[in-house]
Amino acid sequence: MMMDVSSTRTASSLTCAPPTAPKPAVPARYLSENERTTIADEHPASSSIR
Fold first, then answer.
1. Separation of alpha carbons 46 and 42, rounded Å
2. Distance from CA of residue 2 to its chain's centroid?
3. Which of 27, 29, 32, 46 has the most CB atoms less than 10 A away?
4. Can you list the alpha helix ranges (DSSP code H) found in 1-50?
C-alpha cells in the first residue's frame, strides 16, 4: 500500500537552511589568493617578485 506523502506533510515539518553570513572582506595588507598562487608556483624556480 503506497501512502500519499504530500498529504502527511505539514507546514511546521518543513525547514529551511539558516542564512549564511557573507564572508568578511580581506584587508588590503594581505596578498590575494591569485598572488599567493603565483608566488607558490614560482617558488621552486627560485624566482623572486622583489
1. 7
2. 40
3. 32
4. 5-8, 33-42
The pLDDT of residue 3 is 54
Residue position matching grid coordinates 537552511: 17
Question: Residue 22 corresponds to which cell in the numbers above?
Answer: 557573507
- Residue 23: exposure state from Cβ atoms within 10 A (0-12, 13-18, ≥19): exposed
Q: Is the Cβ–Cβ distance between 39 and 49 less than 8 Å?
A: yes
Sign of CA dihedral 37, 38, 44, 47: negative
Distance CA 32, CA 8 (A): 51
